[in-house]
Amino acid sequence: MIMKGPYLILLFAVGLLITGSLLLFLITRPNHSNVTLATNINWKELSQQPNRIYSGNVNFKIRCSDCHGMNGKGSKQAPNLTDNEWLNGNGSFESIYSIIANGSPNGLMKGWKAKLFEKDLINLTLYVHQLRSKNDTP
Question: Which parts of the chain fold into alpha helices (H)?
Fold first, then answer.
């Protein structure tokens, strides 16, 4: 005599686990399609819009200040963003955007492209770019 009850419960549990895993994957996977190439953005024009830099500042305080400090001066785990020494990239708009969107090459900073709208990535880039001293601005 075969016991159908326990097998049906086990089959249901496995099906539920597979369905939940698939949903979790679909919800949390990165969305690469909503990020424009940084080279297609008119950075000079956008950097003249104070409302964008202000918005970037607000996002920075919420998302970046835990590691980089409230003013971007850095900490033990994250570099200073106010000087002209760049540990990742060269400090250009495109380089900063790439790191914010995709994360740092060493993997210590995770990218934000799956969690932020493109306008927020751009505004964060504009804010971080203007943080550093005006010497040797690329």
Answer: 4-28, 43-46, 50-63, 65-68, 93-102, 118-131
Q: What would the pLDDT profile of 64-97 be if each residue is shown by its tens digit?
A: 999 999 999 998 889 999 998 888 889 999 999 9
Q: Looking at residue 53, which CATH number applies to its domain? A: 1.10.760.10
Spatial CB neighbours of 29, under 8 Å, sequence gap ≥ 6: 114
> Are 117 and 77 part of one and the same domain?
yes
Domain region containing 3: 1-30
Same domain, 64 and 115: yes
Quick one: angle between helices 118-131 and 50-63, nearest 10? 90
Whether residue 136 is contained in a domain is answered as: no
Domain count, the chain: 2
Q: Report the alpha-carbon distance of residue 43 to residue 45 in Å, rounded.
A: 5
- 41 with 66, same domain: the answer is yes
> How many angstroms separate the CA atoms of 97 and 105, rounded?
13
122 Cβ contact list (under 8 Å, min separation 6): 41, 46, 52, 97
Q: What is the pLDDT of residues 11-21, one digit of tens each?
A: 888 888 888 77
